[in-house]
Every structure is written in structure tokens, then in C-alpha cells.
């Protein structure tokens, strides 16, 4: 199993954190992983993306041009990465930041109302964990036990009290993901 993932959106949406948590969770499962962030100098508010590869085998390079999965959180990222999903791959997006939804018919497309759900949960900061939960529902490449360990590893100790809230957000994300197209 090898899963090549791009997560892209605005800085401040937790894009890099999502990638880090997925990477650490993969390590907890004894998988080979890479975490390759990319962001502009403006960071918060600018575009950010991270490539994560989780594999049972050795990874030759963290630099790739096509992805098994794209997690898209804004229109600029949709414009840039929709066509980089391999045919038969998966695109997961939050419609809050996307004006023009994906149009491809050769990939699996899922929608998650992460922004709205985070507000309904009373904490907009759990948005990224809702999206991670939706991703793990459609692509169960990691166990939730190891995701919890990944959260413990990636979050500073002073934030460990928020792990239950993050786990609840992951579960909520698994409940609310909507299928737009399955090929």
C-alpha cells in the first residue's frame, strides 16, 4: 500500500498540521512516510500545501507530480491540483472555500462541510481534524488508535488536553462526508 496525498489550502487552516498528524500516524503503524510542506512567505492567509506519502515500502522521493488523493480547502488549490489527481484517485474538498466544484468524471469526489461543522461544534480550530476524519472514512489507510498516537506526538504537551476534542472532530468528519461521485 502506498498513498500519495496533497493537502492544500490557505495558511492558518491547519494544512501542515493535517499532514504532520497523518505522517506521525503512519509512523505509529510502522509505515514509511514523508512530509513535504510548501508555503509562501506570508504563511497565514497565503497558500500552503503539504505532500504526504504513507507506504508499506521504501519511498524513493517526496517530490511527486500526481497524487492518489487531493484534499482541497480553497479555490486556488482546486485550480492548481484538481488535474494532478491520478485517474481513479480521490478528491476531497470543503465547499466553503471553493467557488467552482471539481468537474472531473474519472476520479472519486467527496465533499465535507468542515468549516460549517467546526462552527457548529463551537470550535473553528477543529476544522482540520473534521477533514482528516472525512479523509480516513473514504481512505481508511490508518487506524484511529494510531491517529490518536499521532496527535499525541505532533501536538505540544500543553495541548494534549485538546486531544479528546480533536478525536470527536475526527469522528464527526467520518459521519458527515458526502459522496459526490464514485467511479
- By secondary-structure content and strand pairing, the structural class works out as alpha/beta
Strand order of the largest sheet: 2-3-1-4-5-6-7
Low-confidence stretches: none
Shape descriptor: globular
Task: Write down the domain tally.
Answer: 1
User: What is the CATH topology classification name?
Assistant: Pyruvate-ferredoxin Oxidoreductase, domain 3
Radius of gyration: 15 Å
Q: State the CATH class.
A: Alpha Beta
CATH homologous superfamily identity: Pyruvate-ferredoxin oxidoreductase, PFOR, domain III
The overall pLDDT average reads: 92
Q: How far is it from the N-terminal to the C-terminal residue, by CA?
A: 20 Å
Annotation, overall tally of beta strands? 7
* Share of residues in strands: 25-35%
What is the CATH architecture annotation?
3-Layer(aba) Sandwich
What fraction, in percent, of the residue positions are helical? 25-40%
- Largest beta-sheet characterization: 7 strands, mixed
Order of helices and strands: EHEEEHEEHHHHE
The DSSP helix count reads: 6
Folded structure, characterized:
The structure is a single chain. By secondary structure, the protein is of the alpha/beta class. It has one domain: Pyruvate-ferredoxin oxidoreductase, PFOR, domain III (Pyruvate-ferredoxin Oxidoreductase, domain 3, 3-Layer(aba) Sandwich). Helix content is 36%, strand content 27%. The protein is built from six helices and seven strands. It has helices at residues 15-28, 75-81, 114-120, 127-138, 144-154, 163-176, and strands at residues 2-10, 32-39, 47-55, 67-72, 85-93, 108-111, 178-181. A seven-stranded mixed sheet has the order 2-3-1-4-5-6-7, sandwiched between helices. β2 and β3 (47-55) form a beta hairpin. The longest helix is centred in the first third of the chain and has 14 residues, at 15-28. It is globular, with a radius of gyration of 15 Å. 43% of the residues are buried. The mean pLDDT is 92.
Amino acid at each position: 500500500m502506498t498513498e500519495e496525498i496533497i493537502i492544500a489550502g490557505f495558511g492558518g487552516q491547519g494544512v501542515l498540521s493535517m499532514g504532520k498528524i497523518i505522517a506521525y500516524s503512519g509512523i505509529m503503524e510502522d509505515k514509511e512516510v514523508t512530509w513535504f510542506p510548501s508555503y509562501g512567505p506570508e504563511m497565514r492567509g497565503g497558500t500552503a500545501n503539504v505532500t504526504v506519502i504513507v507506504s508499506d515500502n521504501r519511498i524513493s522521493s517526496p517530490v511527486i507530480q500526481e497524487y492518489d488523493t487531493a484534499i482541497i480547502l480553497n479555490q486556488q488549490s482546486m485550480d492548481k491540483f484538481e488535474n494532478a489527481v491520478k485517474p481513479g484517485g480521490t478528491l476531497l474538498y470543503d465547499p466553503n472555500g471553493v467557488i467552482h466544484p471539481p468537474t472531473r468524471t474519472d476520479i472519486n469526489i467527496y465533499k465535507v462541510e468542515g468549516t460549517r461543522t467546526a462552527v457548529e461544534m463551537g470550535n473553528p480550530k477543529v476544522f482540520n481534524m473534521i477533514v482528516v476524519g472525512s479523509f480516513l472514512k473514504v481512505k481508511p489507510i490508518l487506524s484511529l488508535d494510531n491517529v490518536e498516537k499521532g496527535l499525541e506526538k505532533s501536538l505540544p504537551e500543553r495541548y494534549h488536553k485538546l486531544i479528546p476534542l480533536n478525536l470527536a472532530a475526527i469522528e464527526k468528519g467520518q459521519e458527515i462526508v458526502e459522496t459526490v461521485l464514485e467511479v
